[in-house]
Specification:
The chain is α/β, with parallel strands linked by helices. It folds into 2 domains: 186 residues, Rossmann fold (3-Layer(aba) Sandwich); 48 residues. The protein has 13 helices and 10 strands. A hairpin with a 2-residue loop joins strand 4 and strand 5. The chain is globular, with a radius of gyration of 20 Å. It starts with a helix and ends with a helix.
Length: 324
């Protein structure tokens, strides 16, 4: 550990969180911070947990060494932990993320939670006490008969708050939410237990036009890199059309294109439109569900969330955070 890090106080109880809309540069920033502050990264992306979903999810280029995942020499956690055919719940994510944070801190490193899935991030930093539920196969079979739109309306009638942060097209998540309600009567409000760490949250903020241009360039780049072939391989491995619909965005529209439901140009235009809308929803979540709750300890004097525009701002804020 270099002199700079030695000058900082022990950060065993510190957690850095990096959030931002899709295409804003979260992963690159997290790696830069991890290199400078002896950190490891915990992905908070609901699609990057799945194996074989790399280009479409924007997963970093990884190397696997003795079962561990690295990118640019930085260890990453919560990537490639589930098969695409499997359902991976928020509760499963939370458990693995908490284990990763504890492991990283025990090794005297800085855990960096980085991603754009608001539910995953809130589950960790707010200490959600998620209700245990056993699979209800009979109920699932009954709900499978309904369309995503019908399931969404049913969920809305039972728990309107839940519909604010769930993909209305994701049939599997809609069924799971209804299954939890059936067993626990409600899934909101959740019980919460204050986490044992000091938390710094850095949010990347981009101008609307700049972000849309980044989204467009990234989309075309991913298509050049073989994103359509990636979806073809998933289909060849038996991932169903409904499952690809559930994954949304790239997987939804490319699957529709491969099934001749849309033309190539329509696929690109629709995908670009939906990604821009998704980015807007992400920002809404970050503003109202994370930044609006910035004082996690109830203190009005402690500000732990900051919008940033560049790496220099992130380094300055992280340095101050770790030194106090």
């Amino acid at each position: 550990m270099n002199k700079f890090l030695n000058s900082l106080k022990n950060f065993n109880n510190k957690l850095l969180v990096i959030i931002g809309p899709t295409a804003s540069g979260k992963s690159d920033l997290a790696i830069e911070i991890a290199k400078k502050f002896n950190g490891e990264i915990i992905s908070a992306d609901s699609r990057q947990v799945y194996k074989g979903m790399d280009i479409g999810t924007g997963k970093v280029k990884i190397q696997k060494v003795k079962g561990k995942i690295y990118s640019e020499g930085i260890r990453h956690h919560l990537l490639d932990v589930a098969e695409p055919k499997e359902y991976f719940s928020v509760a499963q994510y939370q458990k693995l993320a908490l284990e990763a944070i504890e492991d990283i801190q025990k090794r005297k490193k800085l855990p960096i939670l980085c991603g754009g899935t608001g539910l995953y991030i809130n589950a960790v930093i707010e200490g959600w006490q998620l209700p245990p539920t056993q699979p209800n196969l009979k109920l699932r079979q009954e709900l499978e008969q309904f369309s995503p739109a019908q399931l969404f309306e049913k969920l809305k009638s039972l728990d309107p708050k839940r519909t604010q942060n769930i993909d209305a097209h994701n049939k599997r998540r809609l069924i799971r939410a209804l299954e939890i309600i059936a067993q626990n009567k409600t899934i909101s409000p959740l019980k919460k237990v204050k986490p044992p760490w000091d938390i710094l949250i850095l949010g990347i903020k981009k101008d609307k036009n700049e972000l849309q241009e980044l989204i467009k360039k990234r989309l075309l780049k991913r298509l050049d890199e073989g994103m359509i072939e990636e979806v073809k391989k998933l289909k060849e491995k038996g991932v169903s059309s409904q499952r690809l619909e559930d994954f949304g965005l790239e997987y939804r529209w490319i699957n529709r294109y491969l099934e001749n439901k849309v033309m190539y140009e329509e696929m690109i235009n629709s995908l670009y439109r939906d990604i821009c809308r998704f980015a807007k929803r992400q920002m809404t979540w970050f503003i109202h569900q994370i930044f609006a709750k910035q004082n996690l300890d109830g203190s009005k004097n402690k500000k732990n969330t900051f919008w940033i525009k560049n790496t220099e701002e992130a380094i300055k804020l992280t340095t101050h955070f770790l030194a106090n």
